[in-house]
Amino acid sequence: MRFLLDENLPPKSAEIARNLGLDAVSVHELSRRGYSDGEQLRYAAEEKRIFVTRNRDDFLLLTIEFYRAGEPHPGVLIVGRNLPNDRPERISQALKQWADTHAPETFGAVDFL
Q1: pLDDT digits over 61-99, tens only?
Q2: Partner of 24 for a Cys bridge, out of 3, 13, 35, 67, CB 3.0 to 4.6 A?
Q3: What is this structure's pTM?
């Protein structure tokens, strides 16, 4: 599985996730800060990456819009408040746990860490 972390998550989380064996990259590392949510989700879909964000409401709506428009994407993972940005290792560990317990064919879903 491949992951793209939103700009509202610390870029250090992607680095730690890679050290845990995950294919994870942050929009910070790709110089994609400031893009709209729709542009970020389209990019994640093109790159076959699950989008990881704190922005629950907007990405739930975007997922509905994308499916209605016939634009599937690999999925969205919502990071809850129980995983604070000042503890990027906790975000990375939760992402690793999620990846270890979900098969790649669950792409297209919205789930919570």
Answers
A1: 999 898 899 888 889 999 999 999 999 999 999 999 999
A2: 3
A3: 0.94
Question: If you count them, how many residues does the chain have?
Answer: 113
Written as six digits, the tokens of 103 are: 């098969």
Q: Provide the token pair at 62.
A: 């975007």
Q: How far apart are CA 5 and CA 66, in angstroms?
A: 19
Gap between the Cα atoms of 44 and 5, Å rounded: 9
Cα 73 to its chain centre, rounded Å, is 11
Residue 19 or residue 102, greater confidence: 19
Q: 25: helix, coil or strand?
A: strand
Beta partners for residue 109, in sequence order: 75
What domains lie within the chain, and their CATH numbers?
2-112 (3.40.50)
Q: Report yes or no: 59 and 78 within 8 Å, Cβ to Cβ.
A: yes
